[in-house]
């Protein structure tokens, strides 16, 4: 009886052994992830500020920050700009262009893949601020693009003032397409060549092979990459801030830019944290949408 009891106690101790190995990871998650989120939620209900009367005494203001946020017309403009930037540079730009580059590189020789891969990867490995400065120089009034246009006899264009959103979208596409290219390249290499060869024997065209075999076979990879690229693009700040500063006016002011301006330019940290939670909420909604799509 005693041996049976000792054995059961030993089994219970053994069943909880895995928890000891997870304690460091759990502690790191609590300190650097859970605690900051809870603190952000708390501050979003306060008048936290860096200057003025509010900086002297922290007060709980309830949902005043959220009421102010949804009544602020700049917030609606920022949400709209964020969606345009997200769809243009992530959904259409990086996803489609990365897939096309990976598809064109499929079955090509090693030399060709190395050269093209290196060219595309150059934008990805470049730091975001360096990428922004390069593209700013390219699109500026006296930049490379206008030099090419004027050499062909056309009038120069003030790209950063005429089409500022297009310039930051193109900059983000150049900076992030390589990630999608690498993901799709690995997925396309896993598509069984026997299926494609059998389809060719049956008389299928390249378009039919692409739409009926290749894309359905890697649909989970497409959805996963879309989710990762979307969340990454949703938080882009340095690229836009260095190129346009959110301007002219509010034409390129996305939610991260607006949040920064309210928190660290206007010193309204409470209001800024409320905007950050709106950005977090949008990211959660999009993530749940992609996860649901993957299950279906």
Supply database-style keywords.
296 residues; mainly alpha; MetI-like fold; 2 domains; 77% helix; globular; transport
Mean pLDDT: 87
How many β-strand stretches? Answer: 0
Provide the gyration radius in Å.
Answer: 25 Å
Q: Major sheet: size, sense and barrel closure?
A: none
CATH topology of the largest domain: MetI-like fold
- Helical fraction: over 70%
Count of alpha and pi helical runs: 15
Fourth CATH level, the homologous superfamily of the largest domain: MetI-like
Strand content: under 5%
- Low-confidence segments: none
Give the CATH level 1 class of the largest domain.
Mainly Alpha
Describe this structure in words.
The chain is mainly α and 296 residues long. It has two domains: 40 residues, no CATH class; 229 residues, MetI-like (MetI-like fold), CATH 1.10.3720. The protein has 15 helices and no strands.
Strand and helix map with partners:
Elements: H1 2-15, H2 17-43, H3 64-71, H4 73-105, H5 110-125, H6 128-139, H7 144-151, H8 159-162, H9 164-189, H10 193-201, H11 206-217, H12 219-234, H13 238-243, H14 255-265, H15 269-295
Helix pairs in contact: 3-15, 4-9, 4-12, 5-9, 6-9, 9-12, 10-11, 12-15, 14-15
Transmembrane segments: 21-45, 79-103, 115-139, 159-184, 222-243, 269-291
Protein name: Multiple sugar transport system permease protein
Keywords: Cell membrane, Membrane, Sugar transport, Transmembrane, Transmembrane helix, Transport
């Amino acid at each position: 009886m005693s041996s049976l009891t000792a054995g059961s106690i030993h089994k219970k101790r053994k069943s909880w052994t895995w928890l000891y190995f997870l304690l460091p990871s759990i502690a790191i998650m609590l300190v650097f992830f859970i605690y900051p989120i809870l603190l952000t939620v708390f501050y979003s209900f306060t008048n936290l500020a860096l200057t003025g009367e509010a900086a002297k005494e922290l007060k709980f203001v309830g949902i005043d920050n959220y009421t102010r946020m949804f009544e602020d017309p700049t917030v609606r403009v920022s949400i709209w700009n964020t969606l345009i930037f997200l769809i243009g540079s992530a959904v259409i730009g990086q996803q489609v262009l990365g897939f096309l580059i990976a598809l064109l590189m499929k079955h090509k020789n090693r030399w060709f893949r190395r050269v093209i891969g290196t060219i595309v990867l150059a934008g990805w490995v470049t730091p975001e601020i360096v990428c922004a400065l390069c593209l700013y120089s390219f699109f500026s009034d006296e930049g490379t693009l206008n030099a090419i246009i004027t050499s062909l006899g056309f009038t120069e264009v003030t790209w950063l003032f005429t089409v500022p959103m297009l310039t930051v979208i193109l900059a983000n596409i150049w900076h992030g397409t390589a990630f999608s290219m690498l993901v799709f390249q690995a997925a396309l290499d896993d598509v069984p060549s026997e299926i494609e060869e059998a389809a060719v024997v049956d008389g299928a065209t390249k378009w039919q092979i692409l739409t009926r075999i290749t894309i359905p076979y890697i649909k989970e990879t497409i959805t996963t990459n879309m989710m990762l690229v979307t969340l990454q693009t949703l938080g882009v700040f340095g690229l836009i801030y260095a190129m346009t500063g959110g301007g002219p006016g509010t034409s390129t002011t996305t939610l991260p830019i607006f949040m920064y301006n309210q928190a660290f330019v206007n010193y309204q940290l409470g209001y800024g944290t409320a905007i950050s939670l709106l950005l977090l909420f949008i990211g959660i909604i999009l993530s749940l949408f992609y996860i649901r799509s993957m299950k279906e």
